[in-house]
Write a structure and sequence with these properties.
- By secondary structure, the chain is mainly β.
Length: about 80
Amino acid sequence: MMMFVSSELGGRSVVKGAPYTATAVNETRQVLADGNRIERTSSIKLFRDGQGRTRQEQAGGAVFIHDVVAGKGYVL
């Protein structure tokens, strides 16, 4: 199931002329009392275009778009 949500944005600073693509990786390690280890890794893809619009793609398919040019935010 896909859901599309829109909202108005306000108060966000805009960075223009500095597009990028990145992958943020979060790794956690937990050692249990019995010596077993639990390791988890998650990643998020981050994008910004030359006009300052950003997109964030999370595991599981969630996509967040912040269109600072139009003053809107979207969640897919």
